Amino acid sequence: MTAVTVGDLIRRRRGLARRSQMDLAHGIGISPRHLSFVELGKSRPSPGVLVAIARHLDLPLRERNDWLLAAGYAPRYPETALADSGLSGVRASLQRLLDAHDPFPGAVIDRQWNVRLTNEAGRRLVSGIPEEVRGVPTNIFRTALHPDGLARRTRNFPEWSAHLLRRLDRAVVRTQDPALVALADEITTWPAIPDRRTWSRLSSDGADDPVLSWRVEVGGEELSMFTMMSAFGTPADVTLSELCVELFFPADRATETALRHHAEFS
Asked: Which superkingdom is the protein from (predicted)?
């Protein structure tokens, strides 16, 4: 098998971004000829040029490290385990954010959409779902789309699943993560899941609400919630760059009352 070069990686990402050599080269301040030579393997790019190209194409930090390694350079961005003492301050701040959001569900998820931190409301939301369904650690896509998970309790499953499947499709394209690819392949086999090739075109349009709400039955009551996603603005660590905070908010007064009631009597 022919080894994949950094030129191959650049050309592939440039193609996915639908950028011409001339456009990309001018954007980072090098000649199109130089970029062409880099992609063909006739010229070895400097670390600065590689990082500039990666930044211009909005590559994740993990992939930037892969490019540097492929070109024979040391990785530039550290990857620290979330449980490491070096991230204890960040971890504590994230947990405080989630706890302050209680009694509404919230979670910190990684690039594979595995739950890394959550609050009590988040744990109540998935209570009773078997571990083999949720995954270890709990995975948002598995839990929400599995027929023995939250799918059977979701009252607007066609619209909500379309939203999730589009997100999964984008995550697969963006990261090329083998675990996400395998998960997408598995999800395709589940009931009420459309053909994998259609995921990027699925639509949740048609709702009267200003934002798409998730309508799910919890404890015999139908709750309606919408979500907000946030990420670190200036991450310099691979782990932190791949974390995202998802906070659920009640979409109506009845849901807010029910969530507060569940928290009070749990």
From this structure: Bacteria
